């Protein structure tokens, strides 16, 4: 199997949806909302993808300023390709697109904490999330 990695190659909503469903990420993404998925793809300004022929098998989708912070919004690898270094390679290639002082930031699924730790990520307990259905209190 020959995995090809591509920077900012267009990914269709259908390809993205299929990958989310063939990884564990569909459980935590709005897979029932195609318009939202389209917006997620369209408004990412750094996407690194992994391909086995024409099949999307991995994606690292980020929003970044390329100099200070890069938020890795999605890291998904098809279950059949997990354990083969695809996720690690997607992160390395993402980091290579960033400036020398740019931090790579992500929110890990609970089961993935040890994965990121062994790659050298540091756990930061200061992350906060405000869901859209809640208002900012004043």
UniProtKB/TrEMBL annotation:
Sorted alphabetically, which Gene3D superfamilies does this protein's record hold? 3.40.630.30
Does the record's keyword annotation contain NADP?
Answer: no
Family annotation (Pfam families): Acetyltransf_10
EC number(s) for this protein?
2.3.1.-
**UniProt entry keywords in alphabetical sequence:** Acyltransferase, Transferase
- List, in alphabetical order, the Gene Ontology terms for molecular function in this entry: acyltransferase activity, transferring groups other than amino-acyl groups
Q: Which domain of life is it from?
A: Bacteria
The family database entries (InterPro entries) matched by this protein are listed as: Acetyltransferase_Butenolide, Acyl_CoA_acyltransferase, GNAT_dom
- The top EC class is transferase
Q: Which residues form the N-acetyltransferase domain?
A: 3-138
Q: Give the matching PANTHER family.
A: FAMILY N-ACETYLTRANSFERASE, PUTATIVE (AFU_ORTHOLOGUE AFUA_6G03350)-RELATED
Descriptive protein name: GNAT family N-acetyltransferase
Q: Name the source organism.
A: Microbulbifer pacificus
């Amino acid at each position: 199997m020959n995995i090809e990695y591509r920077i900012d190659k267009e990914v269709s909503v259908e390809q993205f949806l299929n990958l989310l469903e063939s990884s564990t990420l569909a459980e935590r993404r709005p897979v029932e909302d195609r318009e939202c998925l389209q917006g997620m793809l369209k408004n990412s300004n750094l996407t690194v993808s992994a391909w086995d022929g024409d099949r999307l098998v991995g994606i690292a989708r980020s929003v970044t300023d390329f100099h200070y912070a890069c938020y890795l919004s999605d890291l998904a690898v098809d279950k059949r390709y997990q354990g083969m270094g695809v996720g690690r390679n997607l992160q390395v290639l993402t980091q290579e697109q960033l400036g020398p002082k740019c931090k790579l930031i992500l929110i890990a699924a609970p089961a993935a904490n040890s994965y990121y730790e062994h790659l050298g990520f540091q756990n930061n307990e200061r992350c906060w999330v405000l869901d859209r259905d809640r208002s900012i209190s004043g």
